[in-house]
Write a structure and sequence with these properties.
CATH class of the largest domain: Alpha Beta
Helix content: 40-55%
Order of helices and strands: EEEHHHEHEHHHHHHHEEHE
CATH topology of the largest domain: Nucleotidyltransferase, domain 5
Radius of gyration: 61 Å
Structural class: alpha/beta
Number of domains: 2
CATH architecture of the largest domain: 2-Layer Sandwich
Largest sheet: 5 strands, mixed
Strand order of the largest sheet: 3-2-1-4-5
Number of helices: 12
Distance between the termini: 124 Å
Strand content: 15-25%
Number of strands: 8
Length: 347
């Protein structure tokens, strides 16, 4: 155990096999001890502290001072002993308290080492700073150094031994290994969560796309049936319906292609000639359909009587058409009147 007795606090460190296992700071020190001594012998705390540091527990001309100092220091050591025993009781049987090293300002109290050894029932030693200052490797002009400056001296020295000495090295290494293990475990769990989340998201996304595709296909099939007036047998699937619709579109496109610039002029010419030659109101002509294909014109409809039919016969003798044969039926809805456009005027 390493006991650093300071003026305002006592620092306790327990070292097992070169490793720092326990550390504690007690909120008491030499000033508190001096106040207790001063209360026992009825003097000022500064006088009690001066007497303690000068004479300590050695015999002097003021034995009641020495007795009061011993009582107070024993109480202080009792508290330290209780703290040390509370921790060492948790150690293995082989890890017992073998030595107590005293440092700090309290190490300068005369006869304190003997009291500590007796009270702690173990070997005790004063860590003397002057031995460090005159070890043959340090060139110092100071003849001695108070033990209260030991921490400052250890901070100022930069020796290979102190640089490489680390009480917590082995403990820190184990903690670092455990930390790496925990980090790897956490990384593995996180990676697993990411992969699982991505898989679930992909599955849900694909399923959603499939459902959307199926709904869109049904909607498209229904729309194609309605637009092209297809029967159920003609549109059993979307591909079949598309083929049927394409066939109708191509047929209609072929019809509209006939209305090219040249054909459109021919059609307008034929319609203009019919409108000019035929007096619809006079004949009371019920014209239902006019079909024009190449240079052929077919008229579907009817007239009320044969007189109107004769008038229609004469009106159809237009310069644009060849002369037609005798018309016999006033109703020509099933058998149309067929006109032939002359070559020089035809489409």
């Amino acid at each position: 155990a390493l006991i650093d007795i300071g003026l305002t606090s006592i620092r306790l460190a327990i070292i097992v096999n070169g490793q720092l296992k326990y550390i504690r700071v007690l909120p008491t020190g030499l000033i508190v001890a001096a106040k207790k001594i001063a209360a026992l012998v009825h003097i000022e705390p500064t006088e009690a502290l001066e007497h303690l540091m000068r004479f300590g527990l050695e015999q002097n001309d003021k034995p009641h001072y020495t007795q009061a100092s011993e009582e107070v220091l024993q109480d202080l050591l009792n508290e330290l002993r209780f703290t040390i025993v509370s921790y060492t009781s948790k150690l293995k049987d082989s890890d017992t308290l073998n030595e107590v090293i005293i440092t700090g300002a309290g190490a300068d109290i005369p006869a304190l080492q003997k009291l500590v050894a007796t009270h702690m029932d173990t070997k005790s030693e004063i860590l003397q700073a002057k031995k460090i200052m005159h070890n043959g490797q340090i060139d110092s002009k100071v003849s001695t150094l108070p033990n209260s400056f030991l921490v400052s001296l250890a901070t100022a020295l930069s020796l290979p031994v102190t640089q490489e000495f680390n009480l917590q090295q082995a403990q820190a290494a184990r903690q670092e290994d455990a930390l790496i293990t925990h980090q790897l475990f956490a990384a593995g769990v996180l990676a697993l969560l990411l992969i699982t989340s991505f898989s679930v998201y992909s599955y849900l996304r694909v399923r959603n796309l499939k459902n959307t595709y199926q709904e869109s296909s049904k909607e498209a099939l229904s729309e194609i049936k309605r637009a092209f007036k297809l029967k159920e047998s003609q549109a059993t699937s979307l591909d079949t319906a598309n083929k049927r619709a394409n066939t109708q579109l191509q047929s209609e496109e072929s019809t509209w292609q006939r209305l090219s610039a040249h054909n459109r002029y021919s059609l307008l010419t034929i319609l203009a000639a019919l409108s000019k030659c035929i007096n619809f109101s006079e004949l009371r002509l019920d014209m239902q359909t006019i079909k024009i294909k190449n240079n052929k014109v077919q008229l579907y409809g009817s007239v009320p009587d044969y007189t109107s039919l004769d008038i229609l016969q004469r009106q159809l003798e237009c310069p644009l058409f060849h002369k037609i044969g005798k018309l016999n039926n006033i109703i020509f809805k099933s058998e149309p009147i067929e006109l032939t456009v002359k070559d020089e005027e035809g489409a």
